[in-house]
Automatic annotation (TrEMBL):
It comes from Alicycliphilus denitrificans (strain DSM 14773 / CIP 107495 / K601). Belongs to the bacterial solute-binding protein ModA family. It comes from the Bacteria. GO terms for molecular function: metal ion binding; molybdate ion binding; tungstate binding. Molybdate binds at residues 63, 171. Pfam families: SBP_bac_11. This is Molybdenum ABC transporter, periplasmic molybdate-binding protein. Residues 1-26 form the signal peptide. GO terms for biological process: molybdate ion transport.
């Protein structure tokens, strides 16, 4: 039985519409995300899946640890690092696609306390002796930890503060030390303690950029992600207006 031409056209239109629906050719990409970028990336990943149908499977941790895992064959498709030197090294060593590298955010270091009014606007609390512990991320693994140590060096406070340092494996664990009160102070990422430009709780000193090296955070497509449509789509999405609005709301710049 022959179908009328109108029915043929209707079926063709329906088929085309189905192809255009988000998720019709949905893919998945595994993303290694620097711990400081946890909250914004969770929001971005949800928006990304809603808008494109692609799914980003997120793992959070220290950039240095991710590098070791990637070198040992971990099947991540994208790295969102807490620095620019690790993605550059990954590209140089052939573990990722250098042409895909870009700075998705510039991080901001803060000295933070859970206690309101404890940290002054100039960070002079560092010179006091009435606190016992300060949480700092491992400077060998976490760029925010390195920035914290550079800050103490610039202020001439390293020798005075060092005996009271509690070291976090990454900036996420470092924040937990300070948030739990196990450390009265913590050098953490601004993104961990603010949202929409407002401090969520406690008190903080935003560390001036001239006290440490810039925290440029680069993204790169890794070898397992090459040719992956979801990986390419996510890299594009991170440059887009929606993602950038989220990134900016957590205190990052570009």
């Amino acid at each position: 039985m022959n179908h009328p031409p109108l029915l043929h056209r209707t079926l063709s239109a329906l088929g085309l519409a189905a192809l255009m629906l988000p998720g019709a050719h949905a893919g998945e990409v595994s993303v290694a995300v620097a711990a400081n970028f946890t909250a914004p990336m969770q929001k971005i990943a949800a928006q990304f899946e809603q808008d494109t149908g692609h799914k980003a499977v997120l793992s959070f941790g220290a950039t240095g640890k991710f590098y070791a895992q990637i070198k040992n064959g971990a099947p991540f498709g994208i790295l969102l690092a807490a620095d620019d030197s690790t993605p550059e090294k990954i590209a140089r060593e052939g573990l990722g696609e250098g042409a895909t590298r870009f700075t998705y955010a510039i991080g901001q270091l803060v000295l933070w306390s859970k206690q309101p009014g404890y940290v002054d606007a100039e960070g002079k609390v560092l010179q006091k002796t009435d606190w016992q512990h300060i949480a700092i991320a491992n400077p060998k693994l976490a760029p925010y930890g390195l920035a914290a140590m550079q800050t103490l060096d610039k202020l001439g406070l390293t020798a005075q503060v060092q005996p009271r340092v509690v070291t976090g494996e990454n900036i996420g664990q470092t924040y937990q030390f300070a948030a739990s009160g196990n450390a009265q102070l913590g050098f953490v990422a601004l993104s961990q303690v603010t949202e929409d430009g407002k401090l969520r709780e406690g008190s903080a000193w935003v560390v001036p950029g001239n006290l440490h090296g810039p925290i440029r955070q680069d993204a790169i497509v890794l070898k397992p992600g090459q040719g992956n449509a979801a990986a390419a789509a996510l890299m594009d999405y991170l440059r887009g207006a929606k993602a950038r609005a989220v990134i900016k709301s957590y205190g990052y710049s570009f």
